[in-house]
Amino acid sequence: MILYDKVFINGKVFTCDNKDSRAEAVGVIDGRISFVGNNTDINKFIGENTEVIDLENKLMLPGFIDCHVHFLEGGLQLGKIDFTEIYTKNEFSLKVEKYIAENKADWILGGNWDHQKISEKKLPCKEWIDEITGDKPFWATRTDLHMGLANSAALKLAGINNSTSDPEGGLIVRDELGNPTGMLKDEAMKLIQKLIPQPEKHDLKIAMRNAFSEAAKNGVTTITDICDAKSIEIYKELLREEKLTCRINGVLPIDQIEKVEKLKINSEMIKVNAVKAFIDGSIGSETAWFYEPYINNPNFSGLPMIQFSNGKLKKLALEADRKGMQLIIHAIGDKAIEALLEMYDEIISVNGKRDRRSRVEHVQHIQNKEIEKMRELDIIASVQPSHLIDDAPWIKNVISESVVNSSYRFRSLIDAEVRTCFGSDWTVSSLNPIKAIYAAVNRTYANNEVFLEDEKISVLEAVRCSTINGAYGNFMEKSAGSIEIGKFADMVVLDQNIFEIEHEKIINTKVIKTVCNGKIVFGK
C-alpha cells in the first residue's frame, strides 16, 4: 500500500470542485493531492514517515489565485516610501522627511498615495516636498500607477518646464501660469521613469523573495504577474534554487511578442504565453475613457492609450492571438470596454474561433450591452474587488450618477454567466485575497455605507472567483484551483470559517497556513 507524504486531518475542507463538496481530510504525495475524504478512511495511508497535520476544525480552501499583480514592483515597493495610510499634506511631507533621514539613496522613491484620501482633496505638487528633498530627485506614483509626483530636482533632470509639450497619451499637469506642478499622467510619467537608476540583479532577487513571502502570508499560491522578461529570468533562477513558493503565470507587454515566443514556458511552476496591453488609464487619474465627461471637466471624458488610438494595438493583438497567445487587456471606462470588445470580436472573425480565454482587466464601469457582449464572445472578466473599497467614497464626485451605477458589477457579470476571476492589482491594492472577498460580499466602505447593494455576491461565489475561476482564467483548471485528487497540493487554512461567520467579520480573517506544491510555505 502507498503511504502518503503528508496528511491534513480534522478540517473543514471546502474543495471548490464542481459540486462544492466538503471533506475532513486531505492526503498528499509528491506535491499532488492523493486523497480527499474523511478522517477514518485516510488513516490506512498514514505511515511512520507521514507528516500528520491536525487542522483543529479550521477551514481549508484551495490556495488563492491572484489573477492580476505587479509582483516585482510589489517587492520593490516594500523598500520604498509607502503613502497608503497618508491623510494630510503634512503627513505626506513628514513621511518623506523620515525616509530621507533613514536612507542614503540617490533617488527618493515611493508610491501608493491617493489624493482622494488626503484631507486637502487636491493633487500633491512639488512644493509639498521641494524644501525637504533639496537637490535629490523624488518620484512617487499614485496607488493606481497612472500618475506620479516629481519634485523640482527630478523635473530639471528630465528637462520638463513650462515649454515642454505633453506627450501623446500623457499629460503634464500645470498651474494657472502654465508651470509644471510635478504631477505627470500616463505616458508623461516615462519622462521621469526612464531616468531612475535600475536596481542591480541582486536587489531584484531580494525584492522578489520579499514578494513571495508576502504572497505566502496571504495564502496566495498562484499569481498572474504583469511583468517583463527580467522577472521571468529571476523566476527561472529561483526555480532552479528551489525557492519558488507560488506558481507564476507571466504576462509580458504586447509589443514583446518575440520575447514571449523565446521565453515560452509551460512547467508546473512557471507559465509564459500571454500578453498585456492598455485601452485607457484610470479613474483616479481621470484618464479612464468614458462615454460621458468627468464632472469637473465637462469637455473631457478620458484618454484612449496612444497604442490603441494609432491602430498599433489591434495589429499586435491580431498577431499575438494568431500565435496562440492569451490576450489580457486593461479597460476601465465604459467606452474603453466597448472599444476592446469590438476589437476582440474582430480578432475572432479574422483568426477564427478557438478556446482563447481573452480577458478584460478591471471591468470597473460596464454597461448592460457590454456585459451581454462579454457573454456572447466568452470573454473573461478579471476584476479587483478591493478597488471598490478605495474608490466608492469619492467616485460620485468625479463621474456622473449613471456611470457610478455601472461600477464593479460583479453580480451582473456572474448572473450573465461571464466567467469572473479576482485579482488584487498589487501594489495598487493589498495583496490580501480576504479583502477582495470581503469587498465583493459586503460592498461596504467608509462608515459602513453600502455601494450598489444589488451587485453583492455570495461568499461561495467570491471564493470560487478567488480559486477555480482564477485557474480557468490561467488555463490551469485541470491542475489547480480546487482540492481534488491529482491536482497540485495548493491549499490555504484560515482562522475563521468565512462561510459561517457574519459577513462583516470576514475582513478580520487571517491565514494560518499556506501550502504550495505540498510544502508548507507559511505557518507551521
Summarize the structure.
With 524 residues, the chain is an alpha/beta fold. Helix content is 30%, strand content 23%.
Write the SSE topology:
Elements: E1 6-9, E2 12-14, E3 22-23, E4 25-29, E5 32-37, H1 39-42, E6 51-54, E7 59-62, E8 64-69, H2 71-77, E9 81-82, H3 89-102, E10 108-113, H4 130-133, E11 138-142, E12 147-150, H5 152-158, E13 170-174, E14 180-186, H6 190-193, H7 201-217, E15 220-226, H8 229-240, E16 247-253, H9 257-263, E17 265-266, E18 270-278, H10 306-309, H11 312-322, E19 326-331, H12 334-351, E20 359-362, H13 368-377, E21 380-383, H14 386-391, H15 401-404, H16 410-415, E22 420-422, H17 433-442, H18 459-465, H19 468-473, E23 491-494, E24 511-516, E25 519-522
Parallel strand pairs: 1-6, 2-7, 8-15, 9-10, 10-11, 15-16, 16-18, 18-19, 19-20, 20-21, 21-22
Antiparallel strand pairs: 1-4, 2-3, 4-5, 7-23, 11-12, 12-14, 13-14, 17-18, 23-24, 24-25
Helix pairs in contact: 2-7, 11-12, 12-13
